[in-house]
Amino acid sequence: MSARAARNPSASSSEALLSIGQVLARLANEFPELTNSKLRFLEEQGLVRPSRTRSGYRKFSAADVERVRVVLSMQRDHYLPLKVIRTYLADLDAGKDPAVPGSGAGDAVQSIIPVARRLGRDDVIAEAGATPHLFSDAVSASLIVPAESYTDDTVHVLRALVELQRSGIEPRHLRGFRAAAERELALIESALMPISRRGDAASRAKAQELSGEIARHFETVRGSLIRQALGRFSL
């Protein structure tokens, strides 16, 4: 979708408008966990502005649907909090050309966010420059979860494993990474328990946003510890 389309989410009079159910059906393959409540929450947060019929029913234009796709993609693929996404969309609406948050891109944005790719096992192996044996070892070490299709994140992980293997570090040496990730997940779930218990759509969305923020803080602490440890090599 172009930045211009994002800045003009209202539909033309001749454009077919979609109900919430039709929007969910259209986005089901990319975002199977999307619900009516989540769509309403995005509207409450000012991230999408569907039109209303005289009876009060929400109607979504094609630009509205793409805007929803952008928000969900940014949350899922870049772990961005809603306030960052809101600022980005507000800049687009104001006629600016902001870089996509988290992308590191400084050029003007011609399209907001590409739809996340879904790759087969052989495609992941080929793009990562890996071997089927390394991929299998990564699955055995629980570094990659077997699935029918994979995202670019799996490619990045496998590329890292290729480089680590060149230094003599095999996937089996990293088995503890999965356990560490599970411990971090348990900490996040514990921290968000008071919010998650409420059960309403707004609370679930808030918990999802906070989980990404906590995960980023974990990465900051972990990276600092590694850099401190590496500093010993320069002594």
TrEMBL record:
**Molecular function terms in GO for this entry?**
DNA binding; DNA-binding transcription factor activity
Gene3D superfamilies reported in the protein's UniProt record: 1.10.1660.10
Q: Which Pfam families match?
A: MerR_1 (PF13411)
CDD domains reported for this sequence: HTH_MerR-like
Q: Which domain of life is it from?
A: Bacteria
Q: Domain HTH merR-type: where?
A: 39-91
Question: SMART domains under this entry?
Answer: HTH_MERR
Keywords tagged on the record: DNA-binding
Question: What is the recorded name of this protein?
Answer: MerR family transcriptional regulator
Q: Which organism is it from?
A: Labedella phragmitis
